[in-house]
């Protein structure tokens, strides 16, 4: 008997053939197998000569499309195998069963796929088994039909499946062909029962094997010559989902429905199968990697278009599958049965993250009282919470939002725009959040213009990503440059939209500028900001093209750039940061010292021609607030602002050291997020106005805030310690969730994307300076900054605080008194840099770490 005792199934004719001669039956079978091979060739060439079993499927003289070809090949081989099996006595109650696995088992037989066959027997006599196996396999070998086979009893097959994950995955797809169906049913039920029972012990190995495959084969969506079978988002991943479904850990198509871009997982799977079918037909042999030179022919055969159309379709299909696998693996991990002490762990708690958004079991989900149908901004709050925490959005949450969430009204509420900016400001964590929104159809609702660039392949090899992914990657890089610019919000929006005009014909910068105007108005930007966003998109190539293609020593070169930008220094600053982010997101080697130095020199020369920067100035005080200040005492007012869920808190109290720190600390402690603040003084009292929004729920009463402020001023509350404890509690909650649900030892520190930047301005008043801080926000940052100023003996005369997404641009007018020296400024700067979020340390060369 020629069977592989180790279960590999990779055997061929050998010495055993001499011991058992096939005889006349084998000879007749060889002729029949030659007919099978000839019929296969006729199916591939569209000829009229086919075997009887395939005639109905194949037709006469016409070229079958990919799906019909697969069905015809399955019918053809099943007809031959059932006929041959009956001829050899493989019948019901014979003690033998022929079982198909692989492509034939899945009814997905490709033109040059191996035949994966398993001959089961009920512990029959070895001589009989050997004779049946030889008479079955030899004709196929003689006809040069590739065969992957094994001969097993049911206990032997179950033992192989128990020790070899790859073999187990194959047997999970087994299908009866001919013979004793009870044997096949025993095998299939046994393998599946064994798989379900032992999945907890095999899950980690299965996922490790999958990730190793992804590392070897890369992502289909972003590969010039993708591996359709083993690449991430490929056919093996669909089989992985099926295996997890059989283990009853997830359903077969998690997280996606027919309304998602591309039509969902089933269509994505079919499209990959069609491309691989045509790849076999074009190559004339089994092949998994799509070569660039074959793409046009395959695109034409599938009536898709040219190679770019084919690449776009493949990207869509692969990203749909990849997202489905991500959801399926995560769902399966949560569903794994617990053993031992793990059963005694408390159920995961629901920790509030934002209004209507909570963390549960390591995922971002909707709160129990959330009403998606009546809350258009909920989609962006969920996404921003996911991006900032690094936790994925639950598939059920995304499906519920896709089914119920209405479109945002135009212009967007300020909170919705802020949540979008928070998400973009989270850097690389935004990529997964946007991908999840896009695959479930929610991103297209927010930005309908995205459809033209979704999965759009690049036109030159230097680009790593599809156009839509390139835009997201550019925004992720731009989040690291937000402290370089005065308008981090417009930098991130410009990064997200700079190539939005591609895929529509014409100059994409001109088309994109028109779309940016349309989008900016929808987002609710001020008209001046819409104009600036439009200019960013229109001129995003101006600096790199001029710096690398023009003579910078020619004054006319600089004058033309300044003229094109209207002498706007803020626009120049934004384009400089965007040029670097765009290059870094394009591909390896696009940004380097040469390009950086050229653009930097061009920007320096343009700045020399443009006017200088305008100093920050205080906001005027409301006369009513001045009157209250004159009356003395502590006053706290809380009134609704001009948009829902937003309030203005005004604190008026006798000016004293520590007042600002304690007022801001009380707001933070009550989960009031400060969007902007104007801080001043009049009649010996501080007049501080804060625009805030509750992180969840309703805001506290003004009387409670006043009472807490009085207690803090009296020294009864240590606000900074309480804020630190609140931050630690949130981190600990994430750590516990990661340990219990994902098996991670710790949660990585959420480093700031951009390093903080401190800018000093001199004023006409002696001892008075203006400090501008550009940094990322954190809980109670304003309170911590004010405390740092107090510690250094710097008196805050006035301040303007602005939060743009996750970035803050805070301007403080400081009275350093007689201590306005270089040393005192360094002391103040060191103190405030000690309370802003940490930046990720740079990787040491050769360290191999992140």
UniProtKB/TrEMBL annotation:
SUPFAM superfamilies: ACT-like, HD-domain/PDEase-like, Nucleotidyltransferase. Signal peptide: none annotated. Uridylyltransferase (UTase) activity is inhibited by glutamine, while glutamine activates uridylyl-removing (UR) activity. Keywords: Hydrolase, Magnesium, Multifunctional enzyme, Nucleotidyltransferase, Repeat, Transferase. One of its GO terms (molecular function) is phosphoric diester hydrolase activity. Residues 467-581 form the HD domain. The keyword Iron does not apply. Pfam families: GlnD_UR_UTase, HD. It catalyses: [protein-PII]-uridylyl-L-tyrosine + H2O = [protein-PII]-L-tyrosine + UMP + H(+); [protein-PII]-L-tyrosine + UTP = [protein-PII]-uridylyl-L-tyrosine + diphosphate. Its cofactor is Mg(2+). GO terms for biological process: regulation of nitrogen utilization. Residues 1-36 are annotated as: Disordered. Residues 1-352 are annotated as: Uridylyltransferase. InterPro entries: ACT-like_dom_sf (IPR045865), ACT_dom (IPR002912), HD/PDEase_dom (IPR003607), HD_domain (IPR006674), NT_sf (IPR043519), PII_UdlTrfase/GS_AdlTrfase (IPR013546), UTase/UR (IPR010043). Its EC number is 2.7.7.59, 3.1.4.-. Residues 648-722, 770-849 form the ACT domain. Belongs to the GlnD family. Modifies, by uridylylation and deuridylylation, the PII regulatory proteins (GlnB and homologs), in response to the nitrogen status of the cell that GlnD senses through the glutamine level. Under low glutamine levels, catalyzes the conversion of the PII proteins and UTP to PII-UMP and PPi, while under higher glutamine levels, GlnD hydrolyzes PII-UMP to PII and UMP (deuridylylation). Thus, controls uridylylation state and activity of the PII proteins, and plays an important role in the regulation of nitrogen metabolism. Has four distinct domains: an N-terminal nucleotidyltransferase (NT) domain responsible for UTase activity, a central HD domain that encodes UR activity, and two C-terminal ACT domains that seem to have a role in glutamine sensing. This is Bifunctional uridylyltransferase/uridylyl-removing enzyme.
């Amino acid at each position: 008997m020629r069977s592989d005792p180790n279960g590999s199934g990779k055997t061929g004719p050998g010495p055993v053939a001499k011991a058992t001669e096939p005889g006349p039956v084998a000879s007749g079978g060889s002729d029949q197998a030659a007919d099978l091979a000839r019929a296969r060739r006729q199916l591939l060439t569209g000829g009229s000569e086919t075997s009887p079993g395939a005639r109905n499927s194949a037709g006469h003289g016409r070229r079958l499309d990919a799906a019909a070809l697969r069905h015809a090949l399955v019918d053809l081989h099943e007809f031959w195998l059932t006929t041959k099996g009956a001829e050899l006595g493989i019948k019901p109650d014979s003690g033998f069963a022929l079982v198909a696995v692989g492509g034939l088992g899945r009814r997905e037989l490709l033109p040059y796929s191996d035949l994966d066959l398993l001959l089961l027997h009920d512990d029959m006599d070895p001589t009989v088994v050997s004779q049946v196996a030889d008479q079955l396999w030899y004709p196929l070998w003689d006809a040069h039909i590739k065969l992957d086979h094994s001969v097993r009893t049911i206990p032997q097959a179950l033992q192989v499946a128990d020790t070899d994950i790859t073999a187990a995955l194959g047997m999970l797809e087994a299908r009866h062909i001919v013979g004793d169906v009870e044997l096949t049913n025993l095998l299939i039920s046994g393998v599946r029962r064994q798989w379900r029972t032992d999945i907890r012990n095999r899950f980690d190995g299965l996922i490790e094997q999958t990730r190793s495959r992804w590392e070897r084969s890369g992502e289909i969506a972003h590969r010039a010559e993708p591996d359709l079978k083993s690449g991430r988002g490929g056919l093996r991943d669909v089989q992985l989902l099926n295996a997890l479904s059989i283990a009853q850990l997830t359903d077969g198509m998690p997280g996606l429905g027919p309304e998602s871009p591309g039509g969902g997982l089933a269509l994505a799977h079919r499209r990959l199968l069609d491309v691989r079918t045509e790849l076999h037909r074009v190559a004339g042999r089994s092949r998994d990697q799509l070569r660039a030179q074959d793409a046009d022919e395959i695109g034409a055969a599938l009536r898709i278009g040219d190679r770019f159309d084919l690449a776009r379709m493949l990207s869509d299909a692969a990203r749909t599958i990849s997202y489905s696998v991500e959801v399926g693996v995560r769902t399966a991990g949560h569903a794994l049965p617990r053993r031992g002490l793990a059963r005694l762990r408390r159920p995961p708690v629901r920790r509030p993250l934002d209004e209507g958004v909570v963390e549960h079991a390591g995922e971002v989900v909707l709160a129990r009282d959330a009403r998606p149908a009546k809350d258009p901004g909920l989609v962006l709050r969920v996404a921003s919470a996911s991006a900032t925490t690094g936790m994925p959005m639950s598939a059920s949450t995304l499906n519920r939002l896709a089914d119920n969430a209405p479109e945002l009204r135009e212009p967007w509420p300020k909170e919705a725009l802020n949540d979008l900016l928070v998400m973009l400001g989270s850097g690389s964590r935004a990529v997964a959040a946007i991908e999840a929104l896009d695959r479930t159809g929610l991103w297209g609702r927010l930005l309908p213009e995205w459809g033209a660039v979704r999965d759009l392949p690049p036109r030159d090899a230097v680009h790593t990503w599809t156009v839509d992914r390139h835009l997201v990657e550019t925004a992720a890089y731009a989040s690291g440059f937000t402290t370089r610019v005065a308008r981090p919000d417009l930098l991130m929006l410009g990064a997200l939209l700079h190539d939005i005009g591609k895929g529509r014909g014409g100059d994409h910068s001109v088309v994109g500028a028109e779309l940016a105007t349309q989008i900016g108005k929808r987002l609710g930007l001020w008209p001046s900001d819409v104009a600036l966003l439009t200019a960013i998109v229109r001129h995003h190539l101006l600096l790199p093209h001029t710096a690398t293609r023009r003579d910078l020593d020619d004054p006319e070169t600089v004058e033309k750039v300044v003229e094109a930008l209207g002498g706007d220094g803020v626009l120049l600053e934004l384009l400089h940061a965007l040029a670097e982010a765009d290059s870094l997101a394009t591909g390896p080697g696009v940004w380097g010292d040469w390009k950086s130095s050229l653009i930097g020199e061009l920007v320096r020369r343009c700045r020399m021609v443009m006017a200088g920067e305008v100093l920050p100035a205080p906001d005027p005080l409301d006369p009513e607030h001045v009157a209250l200040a004159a009356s003395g005492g502590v006053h706290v007012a809380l009134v609704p602002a001009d948009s829902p869920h937003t309030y203005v808190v005004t604190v008026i109290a006798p000016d004293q050291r520590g007042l600002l720190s304690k007022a801001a600390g009380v707001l933070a402690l009550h989960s009031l997020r400060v969007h902007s603040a104007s801080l001043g003084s009049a009649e010996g009292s501080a007049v501080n106005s804060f625009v805030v929004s509750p992180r969840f729920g309703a805001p506290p009463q003004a009387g409670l805030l006043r009472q807490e402020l009085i207690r803090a001023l009296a020294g009864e509350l240590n606000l900074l310690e309480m804020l630190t404890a609140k931050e630690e509690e949130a981190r600990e909650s994430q750590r516990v969730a990661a340990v219990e649900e994902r098996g991670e030892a710790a949660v990585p520190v959420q480093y700031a994307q951009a390093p903080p930047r401190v800018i000093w301005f001199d004023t006409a008043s002696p001892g008075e300076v203006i400090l501008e801080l550009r940094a990322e926000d954190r809980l109670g940052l304003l309170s911590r900054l004010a405390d740092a100023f107090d510690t250094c003996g710097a008196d805050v005369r006035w301040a303007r605080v602005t939060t743009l997404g996750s970035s803050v641009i805070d301007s403080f007018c400081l009275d350093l008194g007689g201590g306005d020296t270089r040393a005192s400024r360094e002391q103040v700067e060191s103190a405030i840099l000690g309370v802003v979020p940490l930046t990720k340390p740079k990787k040491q060369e050769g360290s191999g770490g992140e």
